[in-house]
Amino acid sequence: xxGYRCEQCANTxxxxxEDDLEVYDVVRVDLPGATxxxxxxxxxxxxxxxxxxxxxxxxxxxxxxxxxY
Length: 69
Prior knowledge:
Helix content is 0%, strand content 55%. By secondary structure, the protein is mainly β. It starts with a strand and ends with a strand. The relative contact order is 0.25.
């Protein structure tokens, strides 16, 4: 489970970590200070490589940061 906390209102909530990600799934990546959208390129253990549209970027993210879109 991944926990979230709103800094403005102090509400908290959780969501499960995606455990069924596959190559070419479309995902959202929640990073500190940014949200990216892309396609899963590789899955290795607890990390996922995500590719931006048209190959604009290629980035590794922790599985807990990735949400199936």
